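Lab notebook, bench 4. Still working through the backlog of constructs that have no structural model yet. Next entry is a single chain of 188 residues. Request: give me the structure tokens for it.
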Amino acid sequence: MKTMKIVIKGNNVKVTQSLRDYVNDKIGRLSKYYDKVSRAEVELQYQDNKSAEETQRVEVTLTANGSIFRCEEASISMYASIDIAAEKLERQLKRFKQKQVGRGRGVKHSAELDPIAPPYEDTPGKREPEIVRTKKFAVKPMTPSEASLQMEMLNHSFYVFLNSDTDQINVLYARNDGDFALIEPEYE
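Model written out:
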């Protein structure tokens, strides 16, 4: 099993050795659920403008063999936020691994699954999401600022466009904090 590289950043938070050790322990364990996780980016934030119960925020992004898993959590304690995020990511990884097994994509067969990680089980009565609609549209070259205007005019939470600066397809999306984020492809 290869080791996961964990990058920890603090935003209005001093990343103490205790926090660093806690993140390395909790997030580092996730590779046992899906051994292809190669990198974790963890951002710890203190947000004073939130309610008292949601001032300690953690954002975790895992990179695993071309797939990305992401989670944001906020609570009254940074340690609790890390715990909740790790649990959510554990469920995401188990579910992803189980779906790969079901599709026969070269991952271990269900009889050979890791005995430590029990197979993911859906909530009774809950169905698997499926693609129910495909939408095609003309891609017009524009800058990210033009894309943000288009997204706001359409009242959408994301916008796919051809970035005229890079000639790459990008995705602009609205974050929960009211700002925008830009997704740019990186080819390996």
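Notes after review: Helices lie at 17-28, 78-103, 144-154. Confidence is low (pLDDT under 50) at residues 107-120. Flag for follow-up if needed.
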